[in-house]
Amino acid sequence: MSERTLLAARYAAVYGGIFLIVGIMLPFWPLWLNSRGLDATEIGIVFALGAWVRVLTDPIVTHTADRTGNGRLMLIVCAGLCTAGFTGFVLAWGFWPIALVTLFQSMCLRALIPLSESQTMAAVLSDGLDYGRIRLWGSITFILGALGTGRLLAAGDPDMVLWLVIGAAALTFGSTLILPKRRGRRFEGGAGAILPLLRNRPVLLFLLAASLVQASHAVLYGFGTLHWKAAGHGETLIGWLWAGSVIVEIALFAVSGPIVARAGSVRLLMLAALCGVARWILFASSTALPALVAGQILHAATFAAAHLATMHFIARHAPPGLSATLQGVYAALSGTVMGMAMLASGRLYAELAGGAFLPMAAMCAVSGCVSLVLWTVLRQRD
């Protein structure tokens, strides 16, 4: 095994840990919340809190990483605090205790993603690693988490979800400890140096369009499992539906290098937005298994293609020494949009059930329009 492969494996282990947590939580955390006494509106609020907390904390954490030049240490600290935060749910019952623990836990969990993305993309640019082939291991552990949890829940207590998440968080903490000790370029400027990032119109337009596509998953993330279960589908099948969406995601990540190079970030994002319109209209129209399978296949575009486009765009447009900070800006913007979508999703689902997916389609349509405007502007500059 080559040295480059071993290096890539260390970064892949971090993604594996983070997305094992996500694979357990995303399909089944609403069931756990419901078992602790929360209704649909309260579940939507809890998910919104998790998204909004990153608006305040991610820019602070990521900029601190850039100022110190030690993003690895920040990643280790956040992973340890994340594990501690999840243990706080053991004694949390009812809306307010769960909401308070969510604020702390989400602050740590959400920061893991921009910090790990910044560390990995630095290695991609400096050591010639393939980002898609590293990131796909997170998708593989997502599948293991979704399928394994679905099988266990078929004959188990929903509280099992929490214990599985705690174990996955501990594994994530362990994986951060084996990352290479890479000192990044230390950012010497003050906080005012971040302002040009916020004034760069093409960058902000791209990040806004990407945030809209990712936030359009709000109803699916918050209520997809509940909606499909209400339609008569069992936990094991639901686990397979979630896993199937990630299988196509893995396939795209595995061959992403030539695709990103040929299509470019903006056009790839436009494709993701177009597929999002189709996906959410399909979910709003039917809960039949063929429709659900077709919709989950489109996850390769609505999530994976949008994510690849965004990571490559950020890596190539971040000023020297501010890669983690720009990741934090994106996390804050996407967290704001996702938080609003999550908050609305609880009420939308309570009133419209499957019809709640239609506003998500509208969000993708807006994203597509913004991406088209940006693509036109960039072509005129060239």
Report on the architecture of this protein.
- This protein has 16 helices and no strands.
- By secondary structure, the protein is an all-alpha fold.
- Helix 4 packs across helix 15.
- The longest helix is centred in the N-terminal third of the chain and has 33 residues, at 3-35.
Which residues sit in consecutive blocks of at least 5 with pLDDT less than 50?
none
3D shape: globular
Oligomerization state: single chain
Described by strand count, sense and barrel closure, the largest sheet is: none
How many helices in DSSP terms? 16
Task: Bin the strand percentage.
Answer: under 5%
Order of helices and strands: HHHHHHHHHHHHHHHH
State the separation between the terminal residues, measured CA to CA.
43 Å
Radius of gyration: 20 Å
Mean pLDDT: 86
Derived structural class: mainly alpha
* Secondary structure tally: strands: 0
Query: What's the helical proportion of residues?
Result: over 70%
TL;DR?
The chain is mostly helical and 382 residues long. It is 83% helix and 0% strand. It has helices spanning 3-35, 40-68, 71-87, 95-127, 131-153, 160-176, 195-199, 201-215, 218-230, 235-254, 256-263, 265-285, 289-297, 299-317, 323-352, 357-381.
Write the layout of secondary structure elements.
Elements: H1 3-35, H2 40-68, H3 71-87, H4 95-127, H5 131-153, H6 160-176, H7 195-199, H8 201-215, H9 218-230, H10 235-254, H11 256-263, H12 265-285, H13 289-297, H14 299-317, H15 323-352, H16 357-381
Helix pairs in contact: 1-4, 1-5, 1-6, 1-9, 2-3, 2-4, 2-15, 3-4, 3-6, 4-15, 5-10, 8-12, 8-14, 8-15, 8-16, 9-15, 10-13, 10-14, 12-13, 12-14, 12-16
